[in-house]
Amino acid sequence: MSTGKKIWKFISSMRFAIALLVVLAIACSVGSLVTQGQTYAWYAQRYSERTAALIVALHLDDAFHSWWFLVINAFLCVNLLLCNVLRLPQLVRRSQAEADPQRALQVEGTVSAEGIADPAPAFARLRMPKPVSTATTDGKPALFSSKNRIGLWGAWVCHLGILLLILGFGLGQMTQHQYTVYGVPGQSRPIGDTELVLNIDDFRIGLREDDTVEQYTADITVYNVSGSGESSRSATISVNHPATLYSMKFYQNSTGWAAKAKVTENGEPLQEEIVCAGEHFAIQDKPDLVVALSAFYPDYVMVPGVGPSTATGQLNNPAYLYTVYYQGEFLGMNALMEGEELTIDEYTVTFSDPQSYTLIQIKEDHFTWLALVGGLVTMLGLFLAFYLQPTKVWAIQAEGGTWTVFGQNRKGGALFREQFAKATQDPTGRSASDASD
Amino acid sequence: MLQIENTLFTIVMLLYFAAMILYFTFIAVKRDGIARIAVILQAAGFALHTVALICRGIGAGRLPLTNQYEFATCFAWGLCLVSLIFVLKFRFPVLGVFAAPVIFLIIGYAAMQSKEVHELMPALRSNWLGFHVSTAIIAYGAFGVSFVLSIIFLLRDRMREKGFLDQHIPNREKLDVISYRSVSLGLLFLTFTIITGAIWAERAWGSYWSWDPKETWSLVTWIIYAIYLHLRIRRGWEGRAAAIFAVVGFICVMFTYIGVNTFLPGVHSYA
Ligand code: HEM
C-alpha cells in the first residue's frame, strides 16, 4: 500500500477516532483545570514565571478557542465524515441482507436449537414479529422473522449527529455577535455597531415575601434606525424568558445599582448623568477630570478588616463609593452618604436617586438550530444503537418433521444466547440441544 | 412534610446500611437466602426513599433537585433504582454486594450536606432544570452500576478459586454485556442531560455552551464513555480495556459532581 493510501486509511480508521477522543478528553480537562482568560501576570503570580510563559505559549489561557483545539476538532470531523461515507454502502447492503430470508437460510446463525416440534412459541417468546413462511433452496419448509433492522443505523446516525453538532457550534462561534446593554428605565442605548437602538421602558424586580428575588423583568423597545426608514418592536423579557426582535435574541441577564450624579460649577447646575456602579463620566467643562461611581452600598456599613460593605439589600443607608482621576492619574477615593457633596476645585458632585439598572445580553447566532438538530440526531442514534438491536430468528423443518431454530443478534452476545436457549426449551421440560457457537 | 422527610431519610439510611451488612454476610456465609433478604431490605429502603423525596418535593413546593443535598440523595436513589433493576433482571445479587457500599457512601455524603430549603434564584426557575437534573440522576445511577460491574469484571480475572463466587458471578462475556447495557443507559441519559442543560443555559444565560468547568467535565465524561464503546467493538480489546475506561468514566462522573463544585467554581457552583 502506498504511503498516501496508508495515511488515508488511518485518518478514516476507528483507531484514529479513539486516539482523537482521548486527546480531546485530555485537552478539555486541561482547559478546565487552568483558569481561562487571565493575563500573563496573573498566571505568573498564581504559578511561576516559567509556567505562565508555557501557558501563554500553548494558548492554555484560552484553550477552547486555540488553534490546536480547532485542529483536534477538525480532524474529528474529517474522521467522522470519512467513516460515515465509507461505511454507507456497506450499511445499505447489510440492511437489505437483514430483511432477506434466503440470505439467512444459508447460514448457521450464532445460536441454534434442534428437534423443536413447533417453532411458533419460540418466535413468540423471543418477541419476534410473526414469521413469514418460505422455503430453503432445496425445498425444505422454513419460517423467517427479523426485527429492529433500523438499529443497524444507530452508530451511523449518532456519528452524523455529532458532525452536525460540532458544525453548528463551530459556525455559531465564528459568526455570532454578542452585545451587552445596560441602563435604567427611560434610557436608550445603541446596540454595538448595529443600526438598532434599545430603549429600556421599564425594569421591575419581583420579590417574594422573604425578600429573596423571584424574577427580574424588563420591558424593552428596539428601534431600527437604518437608512430605509424607522421601525420598532417591543417585548417583555425576564430571566429564562428571552425574546427575539430583529433576528436577535434579548436576555434579561443581571442587575446592579445606578444613581443620578449632579455636577454644579460655582453653584450653577452644569450637568446630570445616570451612572451605573462601575461606570465613570467626565466633567463637561473639563474632560480631563473624571469621576467614577466605583461601587454602591444600599445599606452601608463599615466592617472592620473587610472594608465598606452592605448589611442588607434594602435602601436603608445608601452610600456611594467614588474615585476621581485627573488626566488619568488617581486623585482620590471615598464614600459619600446620601446628601453629602464631593468638591473638587470649583466643581461639586452629588449622587442621589439610587435605582436598579438592568443588564441585557443580546445575541445573534444563526446556527444554534443546527447544533440542536445535531444533539437530537445524536440522541436518536444512541437510542437506535442501544435499544433496537437487529435480531433475526428463522426455522427450517428437517426430514423427520421437527424444526431447527436459528437466531442471530450481534450485540446481545451472552444475553441473547440465554434468552434463545430459554425460548427454545421444550415446554415439556426436555431441554433442546443447544448448538451455540 | 420536611420533618417527615427527615425521619424517613434516617430510616432509609439504616435500611441501606442493613442491606449492605446482609450482602456482606451473604458473601461470608455463602447462603442464598441471605442475599434475598438483603435485596428485600434494599427494595424497602428504595420505596421509603421515594416517599421521602416526594415529601421533600411537597414541603419545598418544587422538584427536590436543586442543591447539593437534594442532588446527593437523588443520586443515591438513582443508583439504588438502577442497581435493583439490574440485580433482579439478571438475577445477580453479587452486584448488590458491590453496589450497596457505593449507595451507602453517597447517601452518607448527602447526610453531611445542609438540608435547608432555599428559595430558587430566578435562573433556576425553569422546567428544563427538572429534565436536566432528573436525567442526570438516571445517568449517574447507570454509570454507578457499570462502575461496579467493571470492578467485578476486573476482580473476576484475578480470582483463581472456583466455587461459590464463581457460580454467582456471570462469566466474563456476560458481565461485559451487562456492563455495556448499563453504560448505554447511562450514555443515553447523559446525552439527554447535556442537551437539556444546553437548552436551559441558552434560555437563561444566552449561551448554550460556555465551557464552564461543570459543562466541560460532563463532556469529558461523555467522551470517556464514547471511548469505552469503541474499545468494546474492537476485537481482542473488549473486556479489560473497556472495563478500565468504565471505571475511569465513573471517576469523572464523581469529579464532575463533587470535585468541580469544590475546586473549579463556575455557573454551576451555586448548587
Ligand atoms: C465523538 C465521537 C464519537 C461518538 C460519540 C461515537 C459514538 C458511537 C456509538 C454510540 C457507537 C455505537 C456503539 C454500539 O452500538 O455499541 C459507535 C460505533 C462505531 N463508531 Fe463511533 N463515535 C464517535 C466517533 C467515531 C469516529 C470518528 C469513528 C471513525 C472511524 C467511529 C467509528 C465507529 C464504528 C466503526 C462503530 C461501529 C459501528 C457498528 O457497530 O455498526 N466513531 N460510535
Secondary structure blueprint with pairings:
The complex is a heterodimer of chains A (437) and B (271).
Chain A: H1 3-11, H2 14-33, H3 40-46, H4 49-57, H5 67-98, H6 101-105, E1 111-116, H7 120-125, E2 132-135, E3 141-147, H8 154-175, E4 177-183, E5 188-190, E6 196-207, E7 213-224, E8 231-238, E9 243-245, E10 248-265, E11 268-276, E12 280-283, E13 286-297, E14 300-303, E15 307-310, E16 319-326, E17 329-337, E18 342-344, E19 347-364, H9 368-387, E20 391-397, E21 403-408, H10 413-423
Antiparallel strand pairs in A: 1-21, 2-3, 3-20, 4-19, 5-6, 6-7, 7-8, 9-10, 10-11, 10-19, 12-13, 13-16, 14-15, 16-17, 18-19, 20-21
Chain B: H1 2-29, H2 32-60, H3 68-89, H4 93-111, H5 127-158, H6 164-168, H7 172-205, H8 213-233, H9 240-263
Helix pairs in contact in B: 1-2, 1-4, 2-3, 2-4, 3-4, 3-5, 4-5, 5-7, 5-9, 7-8, 8-9
Jot down its keywords.
A: 437 residues; alpha+beta; 5-stranded antiparallel β-sheet; 10 helices; 21 strands; 32% helix; disordered C terminus; B: 271 residues; mainly alpha; 9 helices; flat; binds protoporphyrin IX containing FE
Question: How many individual β-strands of chain B?
Answer: 0
Bound molecules: protoporphyrin IX containing FE
Kindly provide the radius of gyration of chain A, computed on alpha-carbon positions and rounded to a whole number of angstroms. 35 Å
The overall strand count of chain A is 21
SSE series of chain B: HHHHHHHHH
Please identify the oligomeric state.
Answer: heterodimer
Structural class of chain B: mainly alpha
Strand residues, percent of chain B? under 5%
- First-to-last CA distance of chain B: 22 Å
Low-confidence stretches of chain A: 428-437
Q: Determine the most extensive contact between two protein chains.
A: A-B, 52 and 50 residues
What fraction, in percent, of the residue positions of chain B are helical? over 70%
Largest sheet of chain B: none
Radius of gyration of chain B: 19 Å
